[in-house]
Amino acid sequence: MSFIIAKIDFAINTGSKLGGTYHDDAPTTLAIIESHSDELAASLLDRVHNSGATVGYQLVPDKDLRDTVSEIYCHLSDWLSTRNEFDLEQRYRAIGTRRAQQGVPFSQVAWAIVFTKENLWDFLKNNLEMDPAAVFTDLAHVLCS
Predict the structure, then answer these.
(1) pTM metric for this prediction
(2) CB-neighbour burial class of residue 91 (10 A; exposed 0-12, middle 13-18, buried 19+)
């Protein structure tokens, strides 16, 4: 799933609009997300391990999943500012290939991606004074401009 599709999906599901006014809080939000990448990764591991939708992830070593997710959260600003659609496709293709080799069904990989988005959303709702929908809208604006 490309990040742009994920952003549009987010906007549709939350009723927010892509674009709008850029808030100066977006770079700070990225720094907060990146500095809490280990916490976010641990939280996602809990979600994945406690969901019936992702039982195949029992086949994935915790360190592998934690490193994969932490890398994305830790370098989010790089992914948003310098990576293009091809880079994202290659990254998710590699993750999907690795999970297939580990015996994880594609449907469960898709659920893990959904959980990654929900995990970030919950983190923002619980740790920022700013409305997470506004933050995501601002980030989408930065990417689309």
Answers:
(1) 0.72
(2) middle
> Could you identify the residue written with the tokens 């069904």?
105
3-state secondary structure of 88: helix
Q: What is the pLDDT of residue 144?
A: 62
Residue 128 per-residue DSSP state: -
Domains of the chain, residue spans: 3-144
**Where in 5-129 does DSSP place strands (E)?**
none
Residue 10: partners with Cβ closer than 8 Å, 6 or more residues away: 16, 117, 136, 140
Show the tokens assigned to 40.
């976010």
Q: Residue 81's Cα: distance from chain center in Å? A: 15
**Cα–Cα distance, 40 to 42 (Å, whole number):** 5
